[in-house]
Amino acid sequence: MAAIDLAVLGMVLEKPQSAYDIQKDVEYHHFPRWTRISVPSVYRKVLQLEREGYLRSRRVQGGKSGDKAVYSITDKGRERFQALMRDCAAAPAALALDFNVMVANLNKVDKAQALELIGTLRQNLCTSAQGVRRYAEEFSGIPLSGRTIFDQQIRLYQALLAWLDQLEGQLAGG
């Protein structure tokens, strides 16, 4: 599933915009925070989607920076957007958590160090959860679809912290 394709097509479906504006929209939606979409990859993706016929551009008079290309979605792009939405909904949800590599190796350190590492991970998860709560408050006026992602992230952190409590209890007792 090409998340970046779906993000770019969705943004341009909402309103025609320049590649720079799309990059700013990616940042505004915090996509790099909870997806594998990076802001620097957006411009290349916009050009690729145009080459493939999903977007079309028109030159408009820019301000100080001169002319700029503004992209709009084509009928083919609308069809691709709908297909990507279906594919995304049907795809298995893979949760790749890099800290699982550390957890998988806890049996290779002594109990005290393992508990210390778990404490550090807990602190990191708590800090991250607080950050999401701050974002949720700061951006409380966004549409429901965006607010639900903040809620999802908060719930995931809560579940991870509960799981971590269980792991810590098992390590401390075992």
Task: Give a written overview of the molecule.
Helices cover 68% and strands 8% of the residues. The protein has eight helices and three strands. The mean pLDDT is 90.
Which terms summarize this structure?
single chain; mainly alpha; three-stranded antiparallel sheet; 8% strand
Radius of gyration: 21 Å
Q: How helical, in percent, are the residues?
A: 55-70%
- Biggest sheet: strands side by side, in what order? 1-3-2
| Global geometry | elongated
**SS elements, strand count:** 3
Q: Which consecutive residue ranges, at least 5 long each, have pLDDT under 50? A: none
Please tell me the overall pLDDT.
90
Secondary-structure content class? mainly alpha
SSE sequence, one letter per element = HEHHHEEHHHH
Number of helices: 8
Q: How can the largest sheet be summarized?
A: 3 strands, antiparallel
Q: What is the terminal separation in angstroms?
A: 42 Å
Q: Approximately what portion of the residues adopt beta-strand conformation?
A: 5-15%
